[in-house]
Amino acid sequence: MRLELSAEDQAFRDEMRRFFTTEVPQEIRSTVLEGRELSRDQIVTSQRILNAAGLAVPHWPVADGGRDWTDLQRHIWHEEMQQAGVPAPLAFNASMIGPVLAQFATPEMKRRFLPATANLDIWWSQGFSEPDAGSDLAGLRTTAVRDGEDWVVNGQKTWTTLGQYGDWIFTLVRTDPEAKKQAGISMLLIDMTSPGLEVRPIELIDGGHEVNEVWFTDVRVPGENLVGEVNQGWTMAKFLLGNERVGVAPVGSVKRALARAKQLAGEQLADPLTRARVAELENQLLALELTALRVVANSTDGAPHPASSVLKLRGTELQQAVSELILDLAGPASLGARDAHDSDLPGWARRSAPTYLNLRKASIYGGSNEIQRQIIARTILGL
After folding, report:
1. Mean pLDDT score of the chain, rounded to an integer?
2. Per-residue CA distances from 347 to 61, 124, 333, 350, 378 (Å)
3. Which member of 130, 210, 244, 289 is catalytic?
4. What is the pLDDT of residue 215?
5. Is residue 62 within 8 Å of 1, Cβ to Cβ?
6. Taking the CA atoms of the chain, what radius of gyration do you get in angstroms?
7. Spatial separation of the C-alpha atoms in residues 215 and 158, rounded to whole Å
8. Do the Cβ atoms of 173 and 233 come closer than 8 Å?
9. Cross-strand bridge partners of residue 211
10. For this structure, is 213 an active site residue?
11. I need a labelling partner for 281 at 20 to 30 A (CA). Which of 105, 180, 196, 354 fits?
């Protein structure tokens, strides 16, 4: 197959590159490029700049603010955004609840939520996983009981990423305890300022506060906040997860991280083993990029190609491998992660250990790599 871009697609790439490198503030992009933690305000500012230019939710239906782009254009948009250090539109808004509302919500609910979702006027949290229902999501136990026109919700969600910033949470709840597991689930939109809703932080191995527990104690939710029909939640969950896994190969960000690693290596690149390690990662990354282009070329109607599981598997492995390379380049300086900001140790070296530890999650979220291997065996290898 031909992998060169057409003149039209090359012009599109140039347009995206120009916009991302000139319209998004350098301060925000430097935060990403240097591996520092983005603030809530930086994430919101970036997404609003993209949304004003029609670049925040291009994969949504055109009627709801999307763009009529090809799969290849979407791939280019995503890669150039990563390369430039522009924060991707908040996944909970752009890739999860937004497409679900566009597909399943009433016109009134769309008018109420979709513009605010695209512009990050509402910061959405995801209420799916529970302590005993992660990979087995259908085993969730958070309940919603009808009380007049309202629902009363009780239960717990966990691993709620950035839930400390959340305004609303889209939540899977059990509305029919007598039905087969998948058949008794619904989706509710819940205001996170509701009485009885509590967000509790979880400290991660890297020392950061990125995820949370969310507890519901007799939380009253208006009946109009039900998405779709009662007990239709499993259908929406599968639709949402399908959208979440589109663009799973972080080619642009891994390219950027590997290029930065070569800059940081300095004299260590004189070591033939270090050079060989970098070269091997570059070769693997090129193979990943070519696979991503093949997947894009063979996808139809926006549906993920079966080989997208290969992208998830190899993409996350390469993310982790590059973070391990940077950790090794930092050497003992990586132990200074807890040092004060005025430390004499380079900032990149102090951030290398937390980044390495944080990226252990990459092979778990969005469908663990073990699950991806099962999908590959079944759908590609026919085993």
Report:
1. 90
2. 42, 31, 10, 5, 44
3. 244
4. 98
5. no
6. 22
7. 9
8. yes
9. 202
10. no
11. 354
Percentage of the residues of the chain whose pLDDT score is greater than 70 = 93
Which residue type does 90 have? Answer: L
Cβ-proximal residues to 220 (8 Å cutoff; 6+ apart), any chain? 147, 150, 151, 152, 153, 194, 195, 196
pLDDT for res 363: 87
Q: Assess contact for 259 and 41: CB atoms under 8 A.
A: no
How would residue 169 be classed by pLDDT, with cut points 50, 70 and 90? very high
**Which domains occur in the chain, in start order?**
7-89 (no CATH), 124-229 (2.40.110.10), 245-380 (1.20.140.10)
Nearest to 250 by CA among 94, 364, 83, 91: 83
Q: How many residues does the chain have?
A: 383
The pTM of this model reads: 0.86
Average pLDDT over residues 198-225: 93
Going from the C-alpha of 374 to that of each of 1, 66, 87, 363, 383, the distances in angstroms are: 28, 33, 31, 14, 9
Specify whether the backbone of 263 is left (phi greater than 0), alpha (psi in -120 to 50) or beta.
Answer: alpha
Instruction: Look at the block and give the residue holding tokens 């527990």.
Output: 213
Which tens digits make up the pLDDT trace of 284-337? 999 998 888 777 766 655 555 677 788 888 999 999 999 999 999 999 999 887
For residues 151 and 326, give the distance between their C-alpha atoms in angstroms, rounded to a whole number.
49
Mean pLDDT of 132-154: 90
**AA letter at 144:** A
* Encoded tokens for 76: 């280019």
Q: What average pLDDT does this structure show over 220-232? A: 97
